[in-house]
Amino acid sequence: MATTTSTMASSLLTNRNSIIIPLIGLLSVLFAAVDVAGEPPSVVPSACKRAYAAGGGTFTEDFCLSALTGHSVGAADNGDLALVAVDLATANATAAEAKIDAQLASGGGGGALADGLRACRSLYDAVVHLYQPDCHAAVKDRRFGDAKLCLGRTARAPVACEREFEQRSVSSPVAAEDDALAKLANLAIALSSIA
Fold first, then answer.
1. DSSP SS3 for 195
2. Helices 78-105 and 144-167 meet at what angle, rounded to 10?
3. What integer pLDDT is reported at residue 31 of this predicted model?
4. Do residues 43 and 75 touch, judged by C-beta distance below 8 A?
5. Pair 68, 191: CB distance under 8 Å
6. How many CA atoms lie less than 13 Å away from 18 in the CB half-sphere?
7. Cβ–Cβ under 8 Å, residues 142 and 79
8. What is the rounded distance in angstroms from the CA atom of residue 181 to the CA atom of residue 92?
9. Rounded mean pLDDT of 44-64?
10. Contact 168, 112 (CB under 8 A)
11. Which residues contact 100 (CB under 8 A, 6 or more apart)?
């Protein structure tokens, strides 16, 4: 009888362990997944909702989510997210400047197209080398009023670039880059407004 009770107790303990060990493993995986995400689930979505409302239709909430998700690990507030948007705008402008340089180096299509590219090159030079370093410093130092003024200049540059091509009646080879830069700059302005 003692052997039967001992066997039953051993069997229950084994059955309990066979359930508990996988359960502990599953919970470990779930907690690890939360740590990998790196940011509270509400930081970016709530910021994008508020930034969209402050942005006056210059970008969509989906654009904000797409731009910031994956780039905002460690962002604690809207000011941190504004800095992320500034840095994304700088990266975009730098890539657009390189694209324009490559097109000009290959002849740029000549004539009106080359003239438009040169005009845009001048605008992007100002964005990359003058405006964005000042914008980054202003947001980093939490001088959001100064940041919004600086970012306003950045947001106007791609609009002026597109106007150069329209005036020359040629298609813009940097339309996508101009659109993205304007939206990123306006996103940074909106996030600075709500910081």
1. coil
2. 30
3. 43
4. yes
5. no
6. 6
7. yes
8. 6
9. 96
10. yes
11. 117, 120, 121, 124, 174
Q: How confident is the model at residue 26 (pLDDT cuts 50, 70, 90)?
A: very low
**Any idea what DSSP says for residue 38?**
-
Helices (H) and strands (E) in the chain, counts: 8, 0
Sign of the C-alpha dihedral computed for residues 11, 12, 13 and 19 taken in this order? positive
Terminal C-alpha separation, the chain:
73
Q: In 10 A of CB 69, how many CB atoms? A: 13
pLDDT surpassing 80 at residue 88: yes
Is the pLDDT at 30 greater than 70? The verdict is no
Half-sphere exposure of 26 (CA within 13 A, CB side): 6
The pLDDT score that the predictor gives to residue 110 is 78
d(CA 55, CA 61): 10
**CATH code at 43-194:** 1.20.140.40
Secondary structure letter of residue 186 according to DSSP: H
Each residue of 67-80: pLDDT tens digit? Answer: 999 888 888 899 99
Nearest to 140 by CA among 178, 90, 69: 90
The residue to which tokens 């202003």 are assigned: 138
For residue 12, the SS3 value is helix
